[in-house]
Amino acid sequence: MNAQIQRLDTAALRVAYTVPRSLAPTDLQLDSNEGKPPSVEVMSTLAEVSAADLKSYPRADELEGDIARGYGLPPAQVCVTAGADDGLMRICRAYLTERRRLLLPVPTFEMIPRFAQWSDADIVPIPWGEPRYPLDSVLAEIDEDTGVIAVVSPNNPTGGFATGDDLRRISAAAPKAIILVDCAYAEFADEDLTSVALELPNAVVLRTLSKALGLAGIRLGYAMGPEACIERLRRFGLPYPVSSPSIALARRALRCVAERQGFIDQVRRERVLL
Prior knowledge:
The chain has helices spanning 40-43, 51-55, 61-71, 83-95, 111-118, 135-141, 164-173, 194-198, 227-235, 244-255, 261-273, and strands spanning 78-81, 101-106, 122-127, 146-152, 178-182, 203-208, 221-224. By secondary structure, the protein is an alpha/beta fold. The relative contact order is 0.18.
């Protein structure tokens, strides 16, 4: 192992998750990365939610089928979650214990080490200072106790990125570990890692409707991966994680993805200018 890599200081994770707010008034709030609001067509779906829908416990089967068809998967390889956060939590609960290690390039999304801490896992921070994913450092840390390896690409908050070849090499080097592939910002990436990750026997992809589709308020995401992994994630989550209105909005939004392309292209152009 690389002796220069220090264990993560978890003191900052012992308080509730909060988002700092500016003390000065502002009309431009960028820190949450909330996308352009949904279209009138998507919003009209709320009027179609019936009293019967609200009376009954929600089922996500049809939504999971919609997502699965979009990626050419069987529905058993898709699990709808309460935002991608819920998927992150399920992976940590399902695959990390006090005897297992999380390899975590940092800085990255704060909730990943929080969830790992809940499982009493050994969190191994790996410095990620360059745009490219620190593949060599990650490979050097893999051992028999490695339970989960995090790949957040594009990375939050730095914008760093991994490649499909990075995923393949990690998968081959750590066949007994789960590769957590967080693709929350995949729509804005130069390389979407989803298709490569879905070819691997030990990778789980997390996607969200919060960013490019502008639906952070419905708290809906999904996990995709090998059927055995997805079934395990189902066992580590709540029985009805998302509401009927959220499911209805998500189904309509996924049918209207093309209308978001202009917004996505605009963000990519303005990112270059920035």
